[in-house]
Specification:
Chain lengths: 275, 333
């Protein structure tokens, strides 16, 4: 019996590791090719580079304002996620504090918003943005992403219901005001859910293409993803440069993933099982 | 789920929120002083809590309620386009959509994509999750590698695959096929059928790991007692799989498939990066058509009509999900 389970384990290992390598292969492929010249790439697209040449990176860095796009994306992401968490947690606190029919109705009406994809509100929002001069503006993008506060609200509100909060009652009896209670007591207590929601919203905003592709026009306002997409046209003949740009735009989100991996997987599990 | 059920039963307990109203209503006449103080603070709290909800209510109105209402209104008018005067034209925008071949191609590919990738991801993700639930060497590496494609933007993933599927020698799939089997370059991205299949394939590749992890989370919540009991009764491993594991994964399947279909209907960046919507309009999506009509061509009426159809499709999926969930909960009770 024991011997058989050992063999089974080995078989699972071999099969699963080969599947994982197949899935990861595209990333290997573009990374190795960023260190080759165009000729080397066409001669042996799969082999490891013979020398670690950084020419492609220098070339892309000098010709494309990657840093500018990175800064734009960082600014939009940080501001959007802060607003989402702030508005979402404030509303969750407000709703949970007063459990009556009105707050239950508000809760259900907000739930409807989750069913509305951005594509449905896109045209009216675009017209409003033209009127208020928010087209081609990073602040305009932040405003659009703040809509994610409603999704954040649901996750935070769900978390607040599951944790015992005797401290709140104690603080209230001791005469702690509503605003101070929110800052000093509620925010520290709900930190785990803020981290989870923050991570998921960061990945969403950082990667989003739909909003920047419609609302951003001038190159100095490009986000990283839009920059990669727009620059492809210029580089269709220079494949290694093209791949280098893709790799450069993968770096920040990969670092984020590696740092937050533990939270991402546990957050997914918690969210999934609670459903 | 747990949150709403607690609200419905009105369970009192050490939770954030005011206690049930019955306790305060009972002795309203003769309140001790301390309790009267509490009531007045509570009234002040109610005003403040309203202010806490206000910002989100504004966001809801500005980014959801008003735009949806305006989309609905535009969809029945000839706003934009050629006339300057806005007038009601009934369902003309909707009928115009259904006689526009570009719109119909976009609609059909979006539906094929949404349903196709949902089915394929489900069929692959469940066995993957079952395998990932076993102990084996290198499990953490495998989990990370499978999950990783869900992390980068769909645009970048699309670009990466354009290199891999390219017809020239650098396109690695074609060069390998050529060397091993002597097959000429396969036009992965330039014939209608292959381009559509490639987009679906890349979509599956990027999502299957994420959904396998979702199933894995459910698998890990299945109590081992069930399997122990099955062992005592002499169940075969096939019986254990189809009588315990798969039925208990049903709720996970509902969640996973709804996510896949709802996000699949919204697909935009992946085909745009991979094929640019082509060849021709073969991989054109509904999102792309809405942007084309409503932003680039200023045909607000038709664009809005298409976005309302879009909303109805998403709503239909969600209604079906809620119905299935309700029915299952009723059966369990």
């Amino acid at each position: 019996m024991r011997r058989r389970s050992w063999v089974n384990g080995l078989a699972t290992s071999v099969v699963m590791i080969s599947i994982a390598c197949t899935v990861a292969f595209p990333f290997y492929y573009i990374i190795v090719n960023t260190f080759k010249t165009q000729q080397q790439t066409s001669e042996s697209p799969l082999g490891l580079p013979t020398s670690l040449s950084l020419t492609n990176y220098k070339n892309v860095w000098d010709n494309i304002p990657v840093l500018q796009s990175f800064e734009n994306t960082l600014r939009v992401t940080v501001l959007s996620v802060v607003f989402m968490l702030l508005l979402g947690s404030m509303a969750a606190y407000g709703i949970v504090m007063r459990k009556n029919r009105a707050s239950r109705r508000i809760h259900i009406v907000l739930l409807l918003a989750l069913a509305v994809p951005f594509q449905v509100t896109l045209i009216p929002i675009y017209q409003a943005f033209v009127k208020f001069h928010l087209v081609d503006s990073l602040n305009g993008l932040v405003l659009i992403y703040t809509g994610g506060a409603i999704f954040s609200y649901f996750l935070i509100q769900g978390y607040m219901q599951t944790i015992p909060l005797e401290i709140i009652e104690a603080a209230r009896i001791d005469g702690c005001g509503t605003v101070r209670m929110y800052w000093r007591i509620v925010i520290p207590l709900i930190r785990p859910v803020l981290v989870t929601v923050g991570i998921f919203q960061t990945i969403w905003v950082w990667n989003d293409f739909l909003a920047p592709s419609v609302f951003i026009i001038s190159p100095q306002n490009y986000t990283l993803v839009l920059q990669a997409y727009q620059s492809v046209g210029e580089y269709t003949t220079n494949w290694p440069a093209f791949m280098t740009l893709s790799v450069l735009s993968l770096i920040p989100i990969t670092i984020f993933f590696l740092l937050m991996q533990r939270h991402i997987v546990s957050g997914l599990a918690a969210g999934a099982v609670k459903g | 789920m747990s949150a709403t059920s607690r609200q419905q039963t009105g369970e009192a307990g050490p939770y954030l929120g005011t206690p049930p109203p019955s306790s305060s209503a009972a002795g309203r006449q003769r309140q001790p002083r301390r309790q009267r103080v509490l009531v007045s603070t509570r009234r002040r709290e109610q005003v403040t809590t309203r202010l806490f909800i206000l910002p989100l209510a504004i966001v809801f109105a500005a980014l959801f309620a008003i735009p949806v209402a305006r989309s609905l209104y535009f969809s029945f008018t000839n706003f934009g386009g050629y006339s300057t005067k806005v007038s009601f034209i009934g369902f003309a925008n909707y009928t115009a959509l259904f006689s526009n071949p570009t719109v119909l191609t976009g609609l059909s590919f979006t539906l094929v994509y949404a349903i196709g990738q949902a089915l394929i991801v489900t069929v692959i993700a469940i066995p993957l999750a079952i395998a990932l639930n076993r102990r084996f060497v290198g499990r953490n590496f495998v989990r990370a590698a499978l999950f990783f494609p869900a992390v980068p933007s769909a645009v970048i993933l699309g670009l990466v695959w354009t290199f891999i599927l390219a017809p020239i020698s650098m396109g690695v799939v074609n060069s390998v096929l050529g060397e091993l089997f002597g097959v000429g370059p396969v036009p992965w991205l330039s014939t209608n059928l292959l381009a559509r299949l490639s987009v679906i394939g890349v979509g599956v590749w990027s999502q299957v790991g994420w959904h396998a992890m979702l199933y894995l989370a459910y698998l890990q919540s299945i109590p081992t007692d069930y399997y122990d009991a099955a062992d005592v009764d002499g169940a075969s491993s096939m019986q254990r799989l189809f009588r315990i594991t798969v039925p208990l994964l049903a709720p996970a399947m509902t969640v996973s498939i709804v996510l896949l279909v709802v996000f699949g209907l919204q697909v935009y960046a992946l085909p745009l990066a991979l094929t640019g919507g082509g060849p021709g309009y073969a991989t054109y999506t509904m999102s792309q058509t809405i942007i084309q009509l409503g932003i680039s061509n200023a045909q607000y009426g038709q664009g809005a009509a298409l976005s309302i159809l879009f909303l109805l499709m998403v709503a239909l999926v969600l209604v079906v999900q809620v119905t299935i969930l309700r029915r299952r909960e009723a059966r369990l009770r």
